[in-house]
Write a structure and sequence with these properties.
Elements (H helix, E strand, L loop, with lengths): L7 E3 L5 E2 L1 H11 L5 E10 L6 E7 L4 H13 L6 E5 L2 E3 L13 E6 L5 E13 L6 E7 L15 E3 L5 E2 L1 H4 L7 E3 L19 E2 L20 E2 L11
Antiparallel strand pairs: 1-2, 1-9, 3-4, 3-8, 4-9, 5-6, 5-7, 7-8, 10-11, 10-12, 13-14
Amino acid sequence: MPKQTLNGNCFMCGKSAAKTAMKNHLIKDHNSGDENCYLIKAEGAYNKDYWLFFTVAQTATLTAVDKFLREIWCECCGHMSAFRQGEREFGKSKKVSTLNVGDTLLYEYDFGSTTEIILTVVSDIARPKQREKILLLARNEPITEVCDSCQAPAAYVDAWGGGFVCEPCAEESDEYALLEITNSPRMGECGYTGEEDRWIFDPNKPFPQTFSGYAKNRPQYVWIVPDKDRYIKP
């Protein structure tokens, strides 16, 4: 199982903090503007060391949340997904504004090898008006794994056996069973390799602010891998 990580990174200012401290930091220091939003916490249902905080415009629908979660944590084969609250399933056309602070939803992706994510409406929050419906504010730091055989840094997860494998030991494994280690609760499921995940924290490579069409409150420390980016247009 992945080892616990204590801290995450604020994608707005670079601060490192544990989950609860990060929530308080975001509400205190990144809560201003003329667009009404909700602050949402997303966690892996079975491993809460994977977590995100993001804002979503209250004018948005759950379709925007679905798209974001697919890109950052889930998408591999175009599987179906659903939002549930207890026995009730919400359609993706449901307005975010109909939710209340304190509400908890279960997001399910893929009804075969299902990944379950708990979404909590943490608080009201404001931000400057922007084009995107969702803005990532913070994310857990990548979890370091070690090879089950030799304790060297792992490079792959064995999707069939469930363990972790380093580069040298991978030569003795079935290549079809090995998937890349990812910063996602879906790691090791189906064919997931994180190809849609564009959100990588790197304090040495702040987000370029010279591209047109982006709001001024874009995160300062988001580094989008060029070959994964489908949105930036020079």
